[in-house]
Design brief:
By secondary structure, the chain is α+β, with helices and mostly antiparallel strands. It folds into 2 domains: 107 residues, Fumarylacetoacetase, N-terminal domain (SH3 type barrels, Roll); 307 residues, Fumarylacetoacetase-like, C-terminal domain (Fumarylacetoacetate hydrolase, domain 2, Alpha-Beta Complex). The longest helix is centred in the first third of the chain and has 15 residues. The protein starts with 32 loop residues before the first strand and ends in a 10-residue tail after the last strand.
Amino acid sequence: MIHLDATHDPALRSWVESANDPATDFPIQNLPFGRFRRAGTTDAPRIGVAIGDQVLDLGAAGLVAAQDMPALMSRSANERVALRRAISAALREGNERAEPERALVAQAEVEMLLPCDIGDYTDFYAGIHHATTVGKLFRPDNPLMPNYKWVPIGYHGRSSSIVVSGTSFRRPIGQTMPPGETTPVFGPSRRLDHELELGIYVGRGNELGEPVDIDDAELHVFGLGLFNDWSARDIQAWEYQPLGPFLSKNFASTLSPWIVTTEALAPFRRAFTRPAGDPPPLPYLDSPDHREAGVLDIELEVWIQTPSMRAEGREQRLSTSNFSDAYWTVAQLVAHHTVGGCNLRTGDLFGTGTLSGPDHTGAGSLLELSQGGKAPIQLSSGETRTFLEDGDTVILRASCQRAGARRIGFGECRGTVLPARLARQNRL
């Protein structure tokens, strides 16, 4: 596990004054990584670190030699810690120097890109409260499949349609089976949903055939970001058996632009425990170190902004939950993914699956909030929703806070639904 050092000191202040604002997601204790370019240009991507309302260009500050995100992400744990300490020292109050100051760019003046080129993408089902609530919609007497508490469930997703926060996407089209019918129909999804997830970025890979031990698992993780795995529930219901989601998931998934590193998350760990009566993890998913501090305490929020809300500059929070309520941890997902010999590569992405809380206020999807579309959600604007409508924007936010530590955040993960592209649909 990553240990605390001077970079986590809650009293640490930066000469970038906006980083000292208690409300900022990006104090000097955070230092998340991302890729950017100057807005309105086609410049090559640069590697930056968020600090307050600014971006520190690491190349311009002389802190990295090349704009090579895979090379940075694949560094050893000791090398990453050394870079974090160097960045922290350069930004620390009292260490003002001309070079770092010239390397600052206002976040308002940059275009954020995907943090890295995503290789393979695996989506897990680690949120037990989501799995239970959704299971009850279809199997009231037996919501969880028999394997759920024994094995981390996952499927291989599509990486080419992963987009960065702020990207709008079109409502997907596909086959659905209307209730009571025997022939499917083709057209736009009518049950488009969001999914509140975290994305887990692989840093160092492993060799084919070489499993990663659970105590080494987080050495292979570079960091985490927010992730919205948009889902077409009606298309999914028709296509998912026997092999799982396909068109219902491959049209768009949205990532936040910043990767909050495992080093930054060190103050926000909890002990891993299982509820009384649940089976203990199998040995390859368990260890004393993991039980001591394998859980990450990350508070999560879902917000919605309908077109009418946007016209008035308003938005509404739909739910709050916490990653600590997930049934499977980051280390367990890595250990399980590799136990059969699968080789992970730098830039691979895991989705956690929808991270819902134990009650209705923590529902991480509209499927749960609207009870499968049976209970419309009343919005403060006077509108109702069962699923997303064209023009709706969903915003995910997350933060970590604990007594004795500085609050850090993840920024926003934002996406807007555009109408389906209907041209030629009958000829496809």
